[in-house]
């Protein structure tokens, strides 16, 4: 005997399991029934695809069709046939998390189908799949796998193992009445427990003649059933299964007590139960009631009634070839009651032959299971070997990754080296510019003094602007570039500085020969040229005010020094200040020439004690000190103010 599991969806699309005993039945049917089932599912699928059915309506309809053909009509599908029939059902069930009950229902159909075929391995496999679906949702049904195991043990006469399964869950099972009363568990879990207890545990205790355990377990079943009855008044399906298992328990106990009157009354109770719930599926009652009535009429030697029911079960399409042995046993017992011992022995011999066929089938199934186990074991070994290969590959990937990281780090160091080298080159260009300024000053006293001063200033301003542009481009590359084209960009930058140098040198020669044709740029314009290249308008707001009158009489040395100071200050702003606004003011005040350079950057209070970071400031102070001036620097997180005061020209 194997348990058949029924599944129904509630209005909230939550699925529940009903574990139902089907007695000594295994079902089969002709090819025409399979075709009818296929047509029915095709029609339902067309309704859904034409959008006349919602997901929930389709799933409910599919549940009814499946139970009708699989359980009521006794359809025996192959795995391929059932998979095809439930393909759309599976697609919908796996499309949304709210249909988790549908996924259990899907595997339940295969479990029941395996029960029909007496395929114990597949039966256990699908029971385990259902249990896994429970675990995925953080739920637990302790009876689905246990009930499947218990039925296999029952078929093999291993009643002690059934009892051992129960003992493992006994503490939990005894709390079920209270849990049901407090709504801590749902009704389907209670019905699952009734199935396991009535169809497995009670019968096992009866077979082992443990009278006390029979009555204790029966009493527990009645308590669970009582609580289920209270909570299931509005659900006929729940009520049917609950009352059915209550009667099953009473039937087993009456047989144990050998109370034939009680047995007859209970069998009548099954008939009344079928009438009471005639508007819903009651195939589970018919499937159990026929064998039980035959047993009763044979035991009471009611030949006519026994003959009628044996004929019914013989003509019943759901009685499969595997039950022929039982049918022959019924007929043999009937002939024995009639007094025809010869015919009885012949029928018993046929029953024995059928039993041998069943055993041979079980042997083949065991061989198949052993083959499957061996195949699974080989697959496991292959997987382990594959994992070993994957692990080796992973190690190589790690080695390659580390090597790649080392190479990237090396490239980064190379880039830093090249940047450092580029800085050195720019420093060399600055030195070259200084040399140009010196050369310019050496010729300033030749020819016309004033013209020569303007030429020197023009040469310095143009050269300084080019160098400032070079510096700004370099800093931009350092901050922004991760590109392999860095070398090309630096080369362009170097070419630009060389061009500036050559331009300055050519210009100096041109001015030397054609000095009278050049025009002097104002000091303010020179500063603007410098700042426009170094401080672009799209990034900085600049305010430059130079009082040219204050520069009248100021020597070329002083002008050049002021330009160098402004240039150094701008460089510091670009590199460190992160400023947005820059002010440069130059004016005369109380016989002093005042230069203010102001920015709204982050300041450099934290770098005051870092001599390397303060080289630019020290350079400014030295230049001012050389001109007998005073340098005042105020810095904070809100910005920096550099105030320089030098004696005005007299």
TrEMBL record:
EC number(s) on file: 2.7.13.3
Classification via PROSITE patterns: HIS_KIN
Leading EC class: transferase
Reaction(s) catalysed by this chain's protein: ATP + protein L-histidine = ADP + protein N-phospho-L-histidine
Domain of life: Bacteria
Any Gene Ontology CC annotation: membrane
Transmembrane stretches, start-end: 396-417
Domain Histidine kinase: 562-650
Molecular functions per Gene Ontology: ATP binding; phosphorelay sensor kinase activity; protein dimerization activity
Key words of the record: ATP-binding, Kinase, Membrane, Nucleotide-binding, Phosphoprotein, Transferase, Transmembrane, Transmembrane helix, Two-component regulatory system
UniProt xrefs under InterPro entries: HATPase_C_sf, HATPase_dom, His_kinase_dom, Sensor_HK_TwoCompSys, Sig_transdc_His_kin_sub3_dim/P
Protein name: histidine kinase
